[in-house]
Amino acid sequence: MIRSEILREIAPIIRDHLVVCNIGLPSQELHMIDDQPTNFYMLGTMGLSSSIGFGLALAQDKPVISIDGDGSVLTNLGTLPTIANNATGNYTLLIIDNGSYGSTGDQPTYAGRKTSLAAVARACGCDNVFEVQAKDLGPVLQEAIDNNEMTILVCKCDSGNIKVPVITMDPVVIRHRFMEAVAK
Ligand SMILES: [Mg+2]
């Protein structure tokens, strides 16, 4: 499975929750598959999906899911100790690990070689870290959202991209409707 197939599969699970989605193709794919006002599409700030989502989870009580990538987490490894040491039960970090920098042309990342992001997350002090295969993700993600324990999911999948349009919505509109969804 590739990332877009995973997003299609989990769309019904995350639809009613606050979602912060990684920059580039992940956001474009999620927008195309199931645009929701509860989705915050990052149009900049590579690496910060986990940080933005985590801050949001700390700031209010609703469940928050950050959809991040392996290349993105490798860009911002400092996020993992921060998350580990300030755990909040309403936060789920989903790292879609396709072993590549998908949005820039599928250049391989070290997560596809010797570096295990699940092992890194555990070493940083994160509890409830699970590496799952793409085909098994749905029920595991549902459980992570439903339980009151912060969970880090590293979903291993194939690299590959589909043709997908850019998001033409104004960033201010994305932010505004997301803030309204948070406040509801
Ligand atoms: Mg990747």
From TrEMBL:
State the signal peptide span: none
- Recall the GO molecular function terms of this protein's record: carboxy-lyase activity; thiamine pyrophosphate binding
| Alphabetized UniProt keyword annotations | Decarboxylase, Lyase, Pyruvate
Please provide the Gene Ontology terms (biological process) for this protein.
small molecule metabolic process
Its protein name is Sulfopyruvate decarboxylase subunit beta
SUPFAM superfamilies annotated for this entry? Thiamin diphosphate-binding fold (THDP-binding)
Top-rank taxon, per record: Bacteria
Q: Domain Thiamine pyrophosphate enzyme TPP-binding, which positions?
A: 39-154
**InterPro entries in alphabetical order:** Sulfopyruvate_deCO2ase_bsu, THDP-binding, TPP_dependent_decarboxylase, TPP_enzyme_TPP-bd
Q: Which Gene3D superfamilies match?
A: 3.40.50.970
